[in-house]
Amino acid sequence: MQREERLSQNNIEAADSLRKYGTGIQPHYWDDLNKDNDVLIIVGEKDEKFVKIGDNMNKQLKNSCLHIFKECGHNVHLENKEAFVKVCHEFLSEGKE
Predict the structure, then answer these.
(1) Helix/strand/coil for 40
(2) Which residues make Cβ contacts (< 8 Å) with residue 70, sequence separation at least 6?
(3) What phi and psi values does residue 16 have, to the nearest 5 degrees?
(4) Dihedral angle at the C-alpha atoms of 20, 18, 59, 35, nearest 10 degrees?
(5) Are 30 and 37 in contact (CB under 8 A)?
(6) Which of 13, 49, 66, 86 has the highest CB neighbour count under 10 A?
(7) What is the band of 1 on the pLDDT scale with cuts at 50, 70, 90?
(8) pLDDT digits over 17-59, tens only?
(9) Where are the alpha helices (DSSP H) in 1-97?
(10) How far apart are CA 84 and CA 67, in angstroms?
């Protein structure tokens, strides 16, 4: 489904979007991050780059939870919507009842 959607996109517009908004162009906010906040880090096990980044973030943040979704890549929210929503809901509800 995702593959078909991406293949149907206009090549020039997709490339332009990546150049303008891709993670390689986004500013670095790590130094401004409040490292005391509760943070849920979500990655798909097939996205090796972001698994490493997530693991590194999890080690540096005091109150973080790293959740690695099995059988998912970069788009966990699309690849396993139900599990994604469940994990997010549990994290956001934790300690609030």
Answers:
(1) strand
(2) 45
(3) -60, -40
(4) 30
(5) no
(6) 66
(7) low
(8) 888 888 888 888 888 888 889 999 999 999 999 999 999 999 9
(9) 2-7, 11-21, 48-60, 76-79, 81-93
(10) 10
